[in-house]
Amino acid sequence: MQSETFFYDNKIVRNFTIATIIWGVIGLLVGIWVAFSLVFPETLNPASWLSFGRLRALHTNGAIFAFVGNAIFAGVYYSLQRLLKARMASDLLSKIHFWGWQLIIVSAVITLPLGISSSKEYAELEWPIDIGIALVWVIFGVNMFWTILKRRERHLYVAIWFYIATFVTVAVLHIVNNLEIPVSFTKSYSIFAGVQDALVQWWYGHNAVAFFLTTPVLGLMYYFVPKAANRPVYSYRLSIVHFWALIFIYIWAGPHHLLYTALPDWAQSLGTVFSIMLIFPSWGGMINGLLTLRGAWDKVRDSAVLKFFVVAITAYGMSTLEGPLLSLKSLNAIAHYTDWIPAHVHIGTLGWNGFLIFGMIYWLMPKMYRTSLFSEKLANAHFWIGTTGILFWALPMYVSGFTQSLMWKEFNPDGTLVYGNFLETVTQLIPLYATRAIGGTLYVTGMLIMVYNVIKTVKSGSFLAQEEASAPALAEDYTAPKGDYWHRWIERKPVQLMVGATIVILIGGIIEIVPTIMVKSNVPTIEDVKPYTALELEGRDLYIREGCNACHSQMIRPFRSEIARYGDYSKAGEFVYDHPFLWGSKRTGPDLHRVGGKYPHSWHYKHMVDPRSMSAGSIMPTYEWLSSNELDTELTSKKLEAMQSLGVPYSDEYIANANTHLMAQAEEIAADLSRDLEQEISPKEEMVALIAYLQRLGIDIKGEHSKHVEATTAGTLTAEN
Questions:
Q1: Of 218, 357, 353, which is closest to residue 292 (Cα–Cα)?
Q2: Is the CA virtual torsion 28, 34, 39, 40 positive or negative?
Q3: At 702, is the pLDDT very low, low, confident or very high (cuts 50, 70, 90)?
Q4: Tell me: the pLDDT tens digits for 374-395?
């Protein structure tokens, strides 16, 4: 059959690669700022838009969607064309995809520091941007499938399986988790509440890690590691098991983020069981990656690219062993809410994602610029500095996590907590936070070396925008060879492969989420739990705006130590009006679920204006702007109407007079503050609304736990040794 000549589009690959480098440096520099702000809270939280709570979300979104996201697209566009022996189907769609994705990132850079946030971890961006993400993602998918359908290579290589699964799963996750009721262009409320919202969020959150930070990167591993080593993939059959087992099992594991919470016990157990099962396909992939380098270990010594790949795959294996182990309740009781979890996460992001991306960049750029890498020594220096940075980042956080857990749980012989003041733990961790920040600085230093190396490489070469290639067209009368392996059939059928992957990933989500939403007994109600007042709802939105849930949980687990420290454990029925839930995932500060009534209004006011005046040694940022900002009540009625549409029992009369009710409560709090602080406090201050919300937390059933004991499906009180 006669060959056809065509040209690969390297321009789109170059654009995404450059975006990867630029956004990677920016996103990780924000991370360094955030890390040092916990060491120097008085200096590095100078304004609202530079405060820890707001910038932390910017850092995570930047690292995931700007750095890793652009790298995924660069690798997919490069490998897909060559694996299919076809140029991308539409240069226009490629360009729209690139510029649309950069616009989304810029939108995040603008909105998150302004406090425009939905509060959901890894999904903080508000609804207009969510719609933009969905549209750009569909454009990417259309271009990818269009290219697959016009391919010249019949069989779909393993990397493409992972790309297809990534596309369909991320689309499902993103759409379901971001189902919201808009109030304005910059504000919305999740349609799910409390326990249901928590389950949906961590079904998304865990699988955003799985299907954005893992499956597409595994696709890149299956392409670039064999290319760099000039070796075939170790085992074709192992890659089949790896793919199908991974995408089926991963989707079930989200509830392991919610162990010992108010989530029904059956959902927690499912999350744990499937998390343990994840070890096998994950390690199958790691083994397949490392053994692909068999016979090429002598090259690893001299090749910086292969060094990055080896450490990346090893970090993948470490993370995918540690994650399932952390889903065991005995270990989760120690690790959850501590710095152990960020340590675990960053082994994956810095080691697995970061190092595989660096190796890919060092391999790609010389290829596209038809030259050799400017300096292998500098690339090796980057490798060792980056590796040191990971160690300096993760090891202190493991120590910090163990320290937190041990100190939080230690009791005196008389049954009282040894460290009853939460701040006693925090002050012990500051040197470890400083070391972590130094580790991040080292990691970014390595990236800056890469920037210099890449610039010099580019200058020494000549960019090949249109790379010529040739291959025969796909034969329409193809007959599979006799005895062909059974999986070859689905590899030749991309639509069937996509449908099969979609069915596999939907099974776990449907079984876990639908019963929690549809079966009322899964979330028992409590008669005394009432909706937030208009002022408290505004205060809750301020809490979300400032990112307070980044440091404070609102979920007291049924442990002796937590009940002694915070009060009665949290019940599922307490969160039925929480759109969105605010359980948090980290305790840099204490849990706040029972903080209502614990301190006078004046304590909260002073604490927010100057945390160290009330808690010496605190690393909490100041929120003094809340005392000078006037509360915007223009949307209060619309917010209540949105909540009413979600089933929150606000009366029409209350909504019609919302601002009157709001001011009445605000004036009462302001009068109390004015008396205690001996200064005039305006009821229109944002601070007043936030105090109203904090004082409401947990008081509906506080002190009445014997009256409102629930037969919750989350289990009974858990004793600790």
A1: 218
A2: positive
A3: low
A4: 999 999 999 999 999 999 999 9
